[in-house]
Amino acid sequence: MSDLLVKIEALATGMPSDPKHVGKEKMGGKICLLSLKFDSSNIDVAKRLTTEGLRLSERVSFIQNLSKYLDAEVFEFSTCNRVLYAGFDIDPETLASGISKTTGLEDIPFQAMTGSDAWRHLVKICCGLDSFIVGELQVMSQLRSSINIHRENNLIQTFNLAFFEHVISATRIIRKELGYTSSTESMLNLATASLEAILSEKGDVSSVVLGFGEMGVKAVETLQDLGQTNIVVVSRNPQESANRNRALAERCKMISYSDFDAKIEADIVISTMRCSSPEYTEAKPLPIIGETAILDFSWPPSIEQNGISKDQNLLGMEHWIQVARNIDPTEYKILMGKGDELIENIQNRYMEALTNKNEGRFRAFIYGQMEELSTSWETSSSTLEKEIPQLGAFAREIATWICQQNSSFYLSELMDYVNSTSRSLNSNLLAEVSQDVETSIRALTAVG
Protein backbone atom coordinates (compact mmCIF):
# COMPACT_ATOMS: atom_id res chain seq x y z
CA MET A 1 0.00 0.00 0.00
CA SER A 2 1.15 3.55 -0.72
CA ASP A 3 2.10 5.76 2.19
CA LEU A 4 -0.77 7.74 3.67
CA LEU A 5 -0.56 11.32 4.88
CA VAL A 6 -2.88 11.29 7.89
CA LYS A 7 -4.60 14.58 8.76
CA ILE A 8 -5.50 15.06 12.41
CA GLU A 9 -8.76 16.66 11.21
CA ALA A 10 -9.58 13.48 9.29
CA LEU A 11 -9.07 11.38 12.41
CA ALA A 12 -11.38 13.73 14.31
CA THR A 13 -14.22 12.98 11.89
CA GLY A 14 -14.33 9.47 13.27
CA MET A 15 -15.19 10.75 16.73
CA PRO A 16 -18.70 10.11 18.06
CA SER A 17 -20.94 13.02 17.14
CA ASP A 18 -21.76 15.60 19.77
CA PRO A 19 -24.57 17.86 18.52
CA LYS A 20 -23.94 20.39 21.30
CA HIS A 21 -20.39 20.93 20.15
CA VAL A 22 -19.39 23.26 17.32
CA GLY A 23 -15.64 23.12 16.74
CA LYS A 24 -13.72 26.27 15.89
CA GLU A 25 -12.75 24.96 12.45
CA LYS A 26 -16.38 24.18 11.61
CA MET A 27 -17.93 27.39 12.97
CA GLY A 28 -17.86 29.16 9.59
CA GLY A 29 -19.89 26.41 7.93
CA LYS A 30 -22.17 25.84 10.90
CA ILE A 31 -24.01 29.17 10.94
CA CYS A 32 -24.65 32.08 8.62
CA LEU A 33 -26.44 35.34 9.31
CA LEU A 34 -28.31 37.67 6.95
CA SER A 35 -29.04 41.15 8.30
CA LEU A 36 -31.06 43.99 6.83
CA LYS A 37 -31.16 47.32 8.63
CA PHE A 38 -33.96 49.52 7.35
CA ASP A 39 -33.35 52.80 5.53
CA SER A 40 -35.11 54.82 2.85
CA SER A 41 -33.62 52.75 0.02
CA ASN A 42 -34.86 49.39 1.30
CA ILE A 43 -37.93 50.20 3.39
CA ASP A 44 -40.41 48.75 0.88
CA VAL A 45 -38.48 45.45 0.82
CA ALA A 46 -38.10 45.50 4.61
CA LYS A 47 -41.85 45.84 5.13
CA ARG A 48 -42.41 42.58 3.25
CA LEU A 49 -39.61 40.79 5.09
CA THR A 50 -40.23 41.71 8.70
CA THR A 51 -42.54 39.65 10.89
CA GLU A 52 -43.18 42.62 13.19
CA GLY A 53 -46.94 43.00 13.42
CA LEU A 54 -47.73 39.43 12.33
CA ARG A 55 -49.82 37.21 14.54
CA LEU A 56 -47.84 34.48 16.28
CA SER A 57 -49.42 31.74 14.14
CA GLU A 58 -48.51 33.64 10.96
CA ARG A 59 -44.92 34.11 12.07
CA VAL A 60 -44.53 30.44 13.03
CA SER A 61 -46.02 29.35 9.72
CA PHE A 62 -43.66 31.63 7.80
CA ILE A 63 -40.56 30.23 9.54
CA GLN A 64 -41.80 26.64 9.13
CA ASN A 65 -42.34 27.12 5.39
CA LEU A 66 -38.92 28.70 4.95
CA SER A 67 -37.16 25.92 6.89
CA LYS A 68 -39.05 23.26 4.94
CA TYR A 69 -38.13 24.84 1.61
CA LEU A 70 -34.44 25.03 2.58
CA ASP A 71 -34.38 21.71 4.47
CA ALA A 72 -32.43 23.53 7.19
CA GLU A 73 -33.10 25.13 10.56
CA VAL A 74 -33.71 28.88 10.33
CA PHE A 75 -33.96 31.43 13.14
CA GLU A 76 -35.85 34.64 12.32
CA PHE A 77 -35.52 37.80 14.40
CA SER A 78 -37.30 41.09 13.56
CA THR A 79 -37.18 44.42 15.37
CA CYS A 80 -38.61 47.83 14.56
CA ASN A 81 -35.60 48.74 12.39
CA ARG A 82 -34.01 45.50 11.22
CA VAL A 83 -34.64 41.91 10.26
CA LEU A 84 -32.19 39.03 10.70
CA TYR A 85 -32.17 35.42 9.54
CA ALA A 86 -29.74 32.86 10.94
CA GLY A 87 -29.31 29.56 9.11
CA PHE A 88 -27.59 26.40 10.37
CA ASP A 89 -25.54 24.08 8.14
CA ILE A 90 -26.34 26.26 5.14
CA ASP A 91 -24.42 28.94 3.23
CA PRO A 92 -25.59 32.59 3.04
CA GLU A 93 -26.31 32.44 -0.71
CA THR A 94 -28.65 29.45 -0.32
CA LEU A 95 -30.39 31.04 2.67
CA ALA A 96 -30.88 34.34 0.79
CA SER A 97 -32.19 32.48 -2.25
CA GLY A 98 -34.69 30.58 -0.10
CA ILE A 99 -35.93 33.80 1.52
CA SER A 100 -36.34 35.37 -1.94
CA LYS A 101 -38.33 32.37 -3.20
CA THR A 102 -40.50 32.23 -0.09
CA THR A 103 -41.28 35.97 -0.03
CA GLY A 104 -41.29 36.66 -3.76
CA LEU A 105 -38.61 39.32 -3.31
CA GLU A 106 -35.53 39.40 -5.53
CA ASP A 107 -32.10 40.95 -4.86
CA ILE A 108 -32.65 41.61 -1.14
CA PRO A 109 -29.71 43.82 0.02
CA PHE A 110 -28.72 41.61 2.95
CA GLN A 111 -25.45 41.98 4.83
CA ALA A 112 -24.10 38.40 5.02
CA MET A 113 -21.86 36.94 7.74
CA THR A 114 -20.76 33.47 8.78
CA GLY A 115 -19.28 31.82 11.86
CA SER A 116 -17.71 34.05 14.46
CA ASP A 117 -18.48 37.19 12.42
CA ALA A 118 -22.18 36.36 12.76
CA TRP A 119 -21.72 35.86 16.50
CA ARG A 120 -19.92 39.21 16.89
CA HIS A 121 -22.64 41.02 14.93
CA LEU A 122 -25.43 39.62 17.10
CA VAL A 123 -23.57 40.40 20.32
CA LYS A 124 -22.98 44.00 19.24
CA ILE A 125 -26.67 44.41 18.39
CA CYS A 126 -27.88 42.88 21.66
CA CYS A 127 -25.44 44.96 23.73
CA GLY A 128 -27.06 48.09 22.33
CA LEU A 129 -23.75 49.15 20.75
CA ASP A 130 -25.43 49.27 17.34
CA SER A 131 -28.50 51.12 18.60
CA PHE A 132 -29.36 54.79 18.36
CA ILE A 133 -29.44 55.01 22.14
CA VAL A 134 -26.31 53.18 23.26
CA GLY A 135 -26.94 50.41 25.73
CA GLU A 136 -30.72 50.15 25.35
CA LEU A 137 -32.18 46.81 26.41
CA GLN A 138 -35.05 46.43 23.96
CA VAL A 139 -33.17 44.39 21.34
CA MET A 140 -31.94 41.88 23.92
CA SER A 141 -35.50 41.51 25.17
CA GLN A 142 -36.70 40.95 21.60
CA LEU A 143 -34.04 38.26 21.04
CA ARG A 144 -35.12 36.47 24.21
CA SER A 145 -38.72 36.57 23.00
CA SER A 146 -37.70 35.18 19.61
CA ILE A 147 -35.72 32.36 21.27
CA ASN A 148 -38.80 31.41 23.30
CA ILE A 149 -41.02 31.40 20.20
CA HIS A 150 -38.61 29.14 18.29
CA ARG A 151 -38.20 26.81 21.27
CA GLU A 152 -41.89 26.53 22.16
CA ASN A 153 -42.91 25.88 18.56
CA ASN A 154 -40.11 23.39 17.84
CA LEU A 155 -38.75 25.60 15.07
CA ILE A 156 -35.12 24.97 16.03
CA GLN A 157 -33.36 22.30 18.06
CA THR A 158 -31.88 22.94 21.47
CA PHE A 159 -28.25 22.62 20.40
CA ASN A 160 -28.68 25.34 17.76
CA LEU A 161 -30.55 27.58 20.19
CA ALA A 162 -27.45 27.31 22.41
CA PHE A 163 -25.69 29.61 19.92
CA PHE A 164 -28.09 32.42 20.82
CA GLU A 165 -27.90 31.64 24.53
CA HIS A 166 -24.16 32.24 24.26
CA VAL A 167 -24.88 35.59 22.56
CA ILE A 168 -27.03 36.55 25.54
CA SER A 169 -24.37 35.38 28.00
CA ALA A 170 -21.72 37.51 26.28
CA THR A 171 -24.13 40.45 26.20
CA ARG A 172 -24.61 40.29 29.97
CA ILE A 173 -20.84 40.35 30.53
CA ILE A 174 -20.31 43.32 28.22
CA ARG A 175 -23.21 45.35 29.59
CA LYS A 176 -21.89 44.78 33.12
CA GLU A 177 -18.37 45.84 32.09
CA LEU A 178 -19.73 48.99 30.45
CA GLY A 179 -21.95 49.73 33.42
CA TYR A 180 -25.19 49.25 31.48
CA THR A 181 -27.02 47.18 34.06
CA SER A 182 -30.31 48.94 33.37
CA SER A 183 -31.96 50.21 30.24
CA THR A 184 -32.05 53.80 29.07
CA GLU A 185 -35.10 55.95 28.89
CA SER A 186 -37.15 55.17 25.81
CA MET A 187 -36.76 57.33 22.73
CA LEU A 188 -40.33 58.53 23.15
CA ASN A 189 -39.70 59.66 26.73
CA LEU A 190 -36.57 61.53 25.65
CA ALA A 191 -38.44 63.21 22.80
CA THR A 192 -41.39 64.14 25.01
CA ALA A 193 -39.16 65.64 27.71
CA SER A 194 -37.26 67.69 25.13
CA LEU A 195 -40.44 68.93 23.46
CA GLU A 196 -41.99 69.89 26.80
CA ALA A 197 -38.87 71.91 27.66
CA ILE A 198 -38.91 73.71 24.29
CA LEU A 199 -42.66 74.39 24.33
CA SER A 200 -42.56 75.71 27.89
CA GLU A 201 -40.53 78.59 26.50
CA LYS A 202 -42.24 79.07 23.12
CA GLY A 203 -45.87 78.08 23.66
CA ASP A 204 -47.90 77.38 20.51
CA VAL A 205 -45.41 76.87 17.66
CA SER A 206 -45.15 75.72 14.06
CA SER A 207 -43.77 72.20 13.80
CA VAL A 208 -42.48 70.07 10.92
CA VAL A 209 -42.22 66.27 11.17
CA LEU A 210 -40.12 64.48 8.55
CA GLY A 211 -41.51 61.00 7.97
CA PHE A 212 -44.78 59.40 9.01
CA GLY A 213 -43.67 55.89 9.88
CA GLU A 214 -43.95 54.43 13.37
CA MET A 215 -41.69 57.04 14.98
CA GLY A 216 -43.17 59.88 12.91
CA VAL A 217 -46.69 58.95 13.99
CA LYS A 218 -45.56 58.96 17.64
CA ALA A 219 -43.93 62.36 17.17
CA VAL A 220 -47.15 63.85 15.75
CA GLU A 221 -49.22 62.21 18.48
CA THR A 222 -46.92 63.66 21.15
CA LEU A 223 -47.11 67.16 19.64
CA GLN A 224 -50.90 67.00 19.51
CA ASP A 225 -51.07 65.71 23.09
CA LEU A 226 -49.00 68.75 24.09
CA GLY A 227 -51.62 71.02 22.53
CA GLN A 228 -49.87 71.80 19.24
CA THR A 229 -52.10 72.42 16.22
CA ASN A 230 -49.78 73.86 13.55
CA ILE A 231 -48.09 70.66 12.36
CA VAL A 232 -46.73 69.89 8.87
CA VAL A 233 -45.88 66.29 8.02
CA VAL A 234 -43.48 65.62 5.16
CA SER A 235 -43.46 62.18 3.50
CA ARG A 236 -42.68 60.57 0.17
CA ASN A 237 -46.33 59.82 -0.51
CA PRO A 238 -48.61 62.04 1.63
CA GLN A 239 -51.84 60.27 0.63
CA GLU A 240 -50.49 56.80 1.37
CA SER A 241 -48.90 58.01 4.62
CA ALA A 242 -52.16 59.59 5.78
CA ASN A 243 -53.87 56.19 5.52
CA ARG A 244 -51.62 54.87 8.30
CA ASN A 245 -53.40 57.03 10.86
CA ARG A 246 -56.30 59.04 9.49
CA ALA A 247 -57.25 60.58 12.84
CA LEU A 248 -53.81 62.16 13.29
CA ALA A 249 -53.31 63.04 9.63
CA GLU A 250 -56.57 64.98 9.43
CA ARG A 251 -55.25 67.37 12.10
CA CYS A 252 -51.98 67.98 10.18
CA LYS A 253 -50.93 69.39 6.84
CA MET A 254 -49.48 66.54 4.75
CA ILE A 255 -46.95 67.51 2.04
CA SER A 256 -44.35 65.76 -0.12
CA TYR A 257 -40.59 66.23 0.02
CA SER A 258 -40.71 68.10 -3.30
CA ASP A 259 -43.11 70.60 -1.69
CA PHE A 260 -40.83 70.78 1.34
CA ASP A 261 -37.91 71.92 -0.83
CA ALA A 262 -39.49 75.38 -0.94
CA LYS A 263 -38.18 77.00 2.24
CA ILE A 264 -40.68 77.32 5.08
CA GLU A 265 -40.55 78.73 8.59
CA ALA A 266 -40.73 76.42 11.59
CA ASP A 267 -39.97 76.58 15.30
CA ILE A 268 -39.49 72.81 15.65
CA VAL A 269 -38.35 70.15 13.18
CA ILE A 270 -38.49 66.48 14.14
CA SER A 271 -36.78 64.08 11.75
CA THR A 272 -37.75 60.41 11.79
CA MET A 273 -36.50 59.70 8.26
CA ARG A 274 -35.04 56.33 7.34
CA CYS A 275 -31.84 56.98 5.42
CA SER A 276 -28.49 55.27 4.96
CA SER A 277 -26.61 58.61 4.83
CA PRO A 278 -27.50 62.21 5.83
CA GLU A 279 -30.21 63.72 3.66
CA TYR A 280 -29.43 67.34 4.57
CA THR A 281 -25.82 68.43 4.28
CA GLU A 282 -23.72 71.46 3.38
CA ALA A 283 -24.44 70.70 -0.29
CA LYS A 284 -28.17 70.27 0.40
CA PRO A 285 -29.19 72.37 3.44
CA LEU A 286 -32.38 71.74 5.40
CA PRO A 287 -35.01 74.00 3.75
CA ILE A 288 -36.10 75.65 7.01
CA ILE A 289 -35.69 79.30 7.94
CA GLY A 290 -35.88 80.91 11.35
CA GLU A 291 -34.61 80.08 14.82
CA THR A 292 -35.43 76.42 14.84
CA ALA A 293 -34.93 73.58 17.28
CA ILE A 294 -34.16 70.47 15.23
CA LEU A 295 -34.60 67.04 16.82
CA ASP A 296 -33.02 64.32 14.67
CA PHE A 297 -34.27 60.89 15.74
CA SER A 298 -33.00 59.15 12.60
CA TRP A 299 -30.31 56.50 12.82
CA PRO A 300 -28.05 56.87 10.93
CA PRO A 301 -28.50 60.67 11.29
CA SER A 302 -30.49 62.43 8.57
CA ILE A 303 -29.15 65.96 9.18
CA GLU A 304 -25.54 67.08 9.41
CA GLN A 305 -24.46 70.06 11.50
CA ASN A 306 -23.25 71.88 8.37
CA GLY A 307 -26.67 71.30 6.79
CA ILE A 308 -28.41 73.88 9.01
CA SER A 309 -28.06 77.63 9.51
CA LYS A 310 -26.20 79.27 12.40
CA ASP A 311 -29.38 80.33 14.18
CA GLN A 312 -30.68 76.76 14.35
CA ASN A 313 -29.97 74.20 17.10
CA LEU A 314 -29.49 70.56 16.10
CA LEU A 315 -30.18 67.92 18.75
CA GLY A 316 -28.75 64.90 17.01
CA MET A 317 -27.04 61.64 17.86
CA GLU A 318 -24.43 63.10 20.19
CA HIS A 319 -27.08 64.95 22.17
CA TRP A 320 -29.34 61.91 22.65
CA ILE A 321 -26.41 59.69 23.62
CA GLN A 322 -25.39 62.21 26.25
CA VAL A 323 -28.95 62.61 27.56
CA ALA A 324 -29.62 58.86 27.66
CA ARG A 325 -26.35 57.76 29.28
CA ASN A 326 -24.75 60.99 30.46
CA ILE A 327 -21.87 60.27 28.09
CA ASP A 328 -19.76 63.16 26.88
CA PRO A 329 -19.84 63.13 23.06
CA THR A 330 -16.04 63.00 22.93
CA GLU A 331 -16.18 59.70 24.83
CA TYR A 332 -18.42 58.02 22.24
CA LYS A 333 -15.61 56.63 20.07
CA ILE A 334 -13.76 55.44 23.17
CA LEU A 335 -16.92 53.63 24.29
CA MET A 336 -17.32 51.95 20.90
CA GLY A 337 -13.68 50.88 20.97
CA LYS A 338 -14.03 49.44 24.46
CA GLY A 339 -17.15 47.55 23.41
CA ASP A 340 -15.37 46.05 20.40
CA GLU A 341 -12.41 45.06 22.59
CA LEU A 342 -14.69 43.33 25.11
CA ILE A 343 -16.47 41.42 22.33
CA GLU A 344 -13.14 40.30 20.87
CA ASN A 345 -11.83 39.14 24.26
CA ILE A 346 -14.98 37.12 24.97
CA GLN A 347 -14.88 35.65 21.48
CA ASN A 348 -11.24 34.61 21.89
CA ARG A 349 -12.02 32.93 25.22
CA TYR A 350 -15.00 31.17 23.67
CA MET A 351 -12.97 29.91 20.72
CA GLU A 352 -10.13 28.81 22.99
CA ALA A 353 -12.61 26.85 25.09
CA LEU A 354 -14.02 25.21 21.96
CA THR A 355 -10.52 24.31 20.77
CA ASN A 356 -9.52 22.87 24.15
CA LYS A 357 -12.75 20.93 24.35
CA ASN A 358 -12.24 19.55 20.86
CA GLU A 359 -8.64 18.57 21.59
CA GLY A 360 -9.70 16.93 24.84
CA ARG A 361 -12.41 14.94 23.11
CA PHE A 362 -9.97 13.95 20.35
CA ARG A 363 -7.39 12.73 22.85
CA ALA A 364 -10.01 10.75 24.76
CA PHE A 365 -11.22 9.21 21.51
CA ILE A 366 -7.76 8.14 20.31
CA TYR A 367 -6.83 6.72 23.72
CA GLY A 368 -10.14 4.85 23.74
CA GLN A 369 -9.47 3.40 20.30
CA MET A 370 -6.02 2.18 21.30
CA GLU A 371 -7.38 0.79 24.59
CA GLU A 372 -9.89 -1.30 22.65
CA LEU A 373 -7.09 -2.67 20.47
CA SER A 374 -4.97 -3.55 23.52
CA THR A 375 -7.87 -5.59 24.93
CA SER A 376 -7.98 -7.65 21.73
CA TRP A 377 -4.19 -8.16 21.82
CA GLU A 378 -4.38 -9.48 25.37
CA THR A 379 -6.60 -12.34 24.18
CA SER A 380 -4.71 -12.98 20.93
CA SER A 381 -3.16 -16.37 20.24
CA SER A 382 0.07 -14.54 19.40
CA THR A 383 0.39 -13.10 22.91
CA LEU A 384 2.50 -14.73 25.58
CA GLU A 385 1.22 -14.44 29.15
CA LYS A 386 4.25 -12.48 30.29
CA GLU A 387 3.59 -9.88 27.55
CA ILE A 388 0.01 -9.07 28.61
CA PRO A 389 0.96 -6.46 31.31
CA GLN A 390 2.84 -4.44 28.66
CA LEU A 391 0.06 -4.13 26.09
CA GLY A 392 -2.09 -1.50 27.84
CA ALA A 393 0.94 0.74 28.38
CA PHE A 394 2.09 0.20 24.77
CA ALA A 395 -1.37 1.18 23.47
CA ARG A 396 -1.25 4.40 25.51
CA GLU A 397 2.24 5.18 24.13
CA ILE A 398 0.90 4.83 20.59
CA ALA A 399 -2.07 7.09 21.40
CA THR A 400 0.29 9.67 22.94
CA TRP A 401 2.46 9.68 19.80
CA ILE A 402 -0.61 10.32 17.59
CA CYS A 403 -1.96 13.11 19.82
CA GLN A 404 1.41 14.86 19.96
CA GLN A 405 1.53 15.38 16.18
CA ASN A 406 0.69 18.99 15.31
CA SER A 407 -1.63 18.57 12.34
CA SER A 408 -0.60 15.60 10.20
CA PHE A 409 1.79 12.66 9.89
CA TYR A 410 2.62 9.92 7.43
CA LEU A 411 1.29 6.49 8.33
CA SER A 412 4.78 5.07 7.73
CA GLU A 413 6.08 7.30 10.56
CA LEU A 414 3.54 5.81 12.96
CA MET A 415 4.39 2.28 11.81
CA ASP A 416 8.10 2.94 12.28
CA TYR A 417 7.36 4.12 15.82
CA VAL A 418 5.31 1.00 16.59
CA ASN A 419 7.79 -1.45 15.06
CA SER A 420 10.83 0.15 16.68
CA THR A 421 9.48 -0.17 20.22
CA SER A 422 11.97 -1.23 22.89
CA ARG A 423 9.34 -3.37 24.57
CA SER A 424 9.99 -7.14 24.64
CA LEU A 425 7.22 -8.42 22.38
CA ASN A 426 7.46 -11.47 20.14
CA SER A 427 7.60 -10.84 16.39
CA ASN A 428 4.15 -12.32 15.67
CA LEU A 429 2.47 -10.13 18.30
CA LEU A 430 4.31 -7.02 17.15
CA ALA A 431 3.21 -7.70 13.58
CA GLU A 432 -0.40 -8.07 14.76
CA VAL A 433 -0.18 -4.81 16.75
CA SER A 434 1.28 -3.00 13.75
CA GLN A 435 -1.40 -4.36 11.41
CA ASP A 436 -4.27 -3.46 13.79
CA VAL A 437 -3.01 0.10 14.34
CA GLU A 438 -2.60 0.66 10.59
CA THR A 439 -6.06 -0.76 9.84
CA SER A 440 -7.64 1.37 12.58
CA ILE A 441 -6.06 4.60 11.32
CA ARG A 442 -6.97 3.86 7.71
CA ALA A 443 -10.57 3.16 8.73
CA LEU A 444 -10.77 6.46 10.61
CA THR A 445 -9.59 8.39 7.55
CA ALA A 446 -11.86 6.35 5.24
CA VAL A 447 -8.87 5.32 3.10
CA GLY A 448 -7.75 1.82 1.98
What's the layout of helices and strands?
Layout lengths: L4 E3 H5 L14 H4 E7 L5 H7 L6 H15 L3 E5 L3 E7 L3 H12 L7 E4 H13 L10 H15 L5 H21 L8 H16 L3 E5 L3 H12 L4 E6 L2 H5 L3 H4 L3 E4 H4 L3 E2 L2 E4 L16 E2 L3 E4 L16 E3 L1 H9 L6 H47 L9 H16 L4 E3 H9 L7 H18 L4
Parallel strand pairs: 6-7, 6-10, 7-8, 9-11, 10-12, 12-13
Antiparallel strand pairs: 1-14, 2-4, 2-5, 3-4
Helix pairs in contact: 4-5, 6-8, 6-15, 7-8, 8-15, 9-10, 15-16, 15-18, 17-18
General description of the model:
The protein folds into three domains: 17-183 and 335-348, Beta Polymerase, domain 2, CATH 3.30.460; 187-327, Rossmann fold (3-Layer(aba) Sandwich); 356-444, no CATH class. Helix content is 52%, strand content 13%. It is built from 18 helices and 14 strands. A six-stranded parallel sheet has the order 8-7-6-10-12-13. A four-stranded antiparallel sheet has the order 3-4-2-5, sandwiched between helices. Strand 3 (74-78) and strand 4 (82-88) form a beta hairpin. The longest helix has 47 residues, at 332-378. Residues 19-28 have low confidence and may be disordered.
Strand order of the largest sheet: 8-7-6-10-12-13
Computed CA radius of gyration, to the nearest angstrom: 31 Å
User: Biggest β-sheet: count, sense, barrel?
Assistant: 6 strands, parallel
β-strand percent reads 5-15%
Helix residue percentage: 40-55%
